[in-house]
Design goal:
Blueprint (H helix, E strand, L loop, with lengths): L1 E6 L2 H11 L6 E6 L10 E3 L8 H9 L3 E6 L2 H5 L2 H7 L4 E2 L7 H4 L1 H10 L7 E4 L2 H9 L5 E5 L8 E4 L2 H13 L10 E5 L4 E9 L4 E3 L4 E2 L2 E3 L3 E4 L4 E4 L8 H19 L6 E9 L5 E7 L6 H8 L4 H10 L16 E8 L14 E2 L9 E5 L2 E4 L2 E4 L3 E9 L2 H12 L2 E2 L12
Parallel strand pairs: 1-2, 1-4, 2-3, 4-5
Antiparallel strand pairs: 6-9, 7-8, 7-9, 10-11, 10-16, 12-15, 13-14, 15-18, 16-17, 18-23, 19-24, 20-23, 21-22
The chain binds glycine.
Length: 425
């Protein structure tokens, strides 16, 4: 069997790597992929061409005998790639364009949450700078300012004061610094507590909760610096109560699935709830994503013991999924991943720096490099994006997993390499 993963980051490398472990999988195609991931022998580029339309992509998929595809990044989803694949008779894991609007518009997601009684932070939505600015003047800070549309991790700001908030509002609403994504914004209550990523894979009837994980959104150790796509992650988290997972399914995931179904947009794919557990134990949804997280995927794919390909095939075919033993589907071990990013990330990442990796690295058991922003130049891997790679390790304890991940990073270097020192501490 052949399968296809759409995307080019560390998340897609991890998904493809895990699919490739199934004895039933012959080839895992990735599009567009990156040069680092194709070092793995079972992973292959779908094409070296860049497809300028979904039609061209679909024609290529049809020519390759692909059993099903999995979508990695949100951009494909909100552009309706799932709708196009389905209308061409191709199986694919990911929500339709309408269902993916849960991530595509934060304002619409808020309306949906209110309608379906899903707990979330209060907010106001603005398209006019004047109105947003007037509102901000009388606000109690800190507050969260969010771009409505997709912004690749660069659309969320925490403002400590009006002085800090005003230039953010100007950048988004007047200067259009992130384009259309920020032409509508949300000013949201700042919630304190412990944040975690709650991810499920569902076809609406069967839902598999993944182990809870935590990612680190700020660039610098100690939760300093600007927000990023994520600088590291670990799983499992040790601060949740015994019935937490069933409680989240009951109060958040099921209402989302029922709500979307009632609107005529049944959900199929990964659903990621960014949650905050407040000091009083109450839960709030910070955001929904319609895909796996990056770098959460790197951790979760390594933590998965079961056959991911069989799970996905069962889902797309509506087949015998109830037989999956949820407990046994995951290693009991701890996993952590640390992201190495380019100098200048997230604003203006430096590119073209040669990546040096100690030869012994690829032989390690339970430690793996997942590549993101890399390309090839004169037979060497060079940096070509903000987040360059992540080193992921699994071990009996979090302390050991962490030590192996950092040990692995110590054997990789490129000019300007930066990473957080406090992942899973
Ligand atoms: N790590 C956060 C995200 O993928 O959105």
């Amino acid at each position: 069997m052949n399968v296809l993963v759409l995307g080019s980051g560390g998340r897609e490398h991890a998904i493809a790597w895990k699919l490739a472990q199934s004895p039933e999988v012959k080839k895992v195609y990735v599009y567009p992929g990156n040069s680092g991931m194709f070092i793995d022998s079972k992973l292959e580029p779908l094409s070296r061409k860049v497809f300028t339309s979904q039609v061209a992509l679909i024609n290529e998929v049809k020519s390759k005998e692909i059993e099903f595809s999995i979508v990695g990044p949100e951009q494909y989803l909100v552009e309706g790639v799932v709708d196009s694949f389905l209308s061409n008779g191709l199986k694919i894991i990911g929500p339709t364009k309408k269902a993916a609007n849960l991530e595509g518009s934060k304002a619409d997601a808020k309306t949906f949450m209110l309608k379906n009684k899903i707990p979330t932070a209060g907010c106001k939505v603005f398209s006019s700078f004047e109105k947003a600015n007037l509102y901000a003047k009388q606000l109690k800070f800190p507050a969260v300012i969010k771009a409505d549309g997709l912004a690749a991790g660069k659309g969320v700001f925490i403002a400590d004061s009006y002085i800090a908030a005003k230039p953010i509002l100007e950048d988004l609403l007047l200067k259009k610094k992130i384009g259309n994504s920020g032409s509508k914004i949300l000013i949201e209550d700042f919630i304190v507590g412990r944040e975690l990523s709650f991810i499920v894979l569902t076809n609406g009837k069967f839902t598999l909760p993944f182990p809870c994980s935590q990612d680190y959104k700020r660039l610098l150790s100690g939760d300093n610096g600007p927000n990023t796509g994520g600088m590291g992650a670990y799983s499992p988290v040790d601060f949740i109560e015994e019935n937490f997972v069933s409680h989240v399914i009951e109060t958040i995931i099921d209402p989302v699935l029922r709500g979307l179904e009632a609107e005529g947009n049944p959900y199929f794919g990964f659903l990621y709830a960014g949650l905050m557990i407040e000091p009083n134990g109450e839960l709030k949804v910070l955001e929904f994503n319609c895909r796996l997280g990056d770098p959460e995927a790197q951790v979760l794919m390594m933590k998965m013991k079961g056959d991911f390909f069989s799970l996905c095939r069962g889902l797309v075919n509506n087949d015998v999924l109830q037989a999956i033993n949820h407990e046994d589907f995951w290693y009991p071990d701890k996993v952590t991943t640390v992201v190495a990013a380019s100098k200048g990330y997230p604003l203006k990442p430096e590119q073209g720096n040669r990546i040096l990796i100690d030869d012994s690295f690829f032989d390690e058991k339970d430690t793996k490099i997942f590549f993101s922003g890399v390309s090839e130049k004169e037979d060497s891997l060079v940096t070509s994006g903000g987040r360059v790679l992540s080193v992921t390790s699994m071990a009996k304890t979090m302390k050991l997993a962490r030590a192996s991940a950092y040990n692995g990073l110590g054997r990789i270097s490129f000019d300007g390499m930066q990473f957080r020192k406090d992942i899973a501490l």
